[in-house]
# Entry
Amino acid sequence: MSADLLRRAAEKLRRAEGRLVMTWGSPWRVVITDSESGTGVATCEDHQLAPHDACDNCEHFETYYESVAEYCSVMHPPVALALADLMERAAVTPTEVDNDVWAEFEHLARQILCEPS
# Structure
């Protein structure tokens, strides 16, 4: 069991989250944009239209598939922080984590780090 693996994955999530919050804020939502793609992910502090319509205050980026927009909106910055916290907690107390659960943590960490299993 490698606690270092979990710590590295948690750090990667925190770095990515920090860059996103500075640029985008949170929470994210799926919106209908005015371009050909039709869907995007947006954050908006003063949203003035229906929940799925992009308003003038929205900061958004385009996606070409609604499923991509939906996934991105679910993985907003607080989700990354929660996953990072969970992995760091497991890394601190690896002997208290069931072996099957530890294997799942390792799998998650390897996916985040793009490392082979």
Remarks:
- The mean pLDDT is 80.
- The first strand starts at residue 29 and ends at 32.
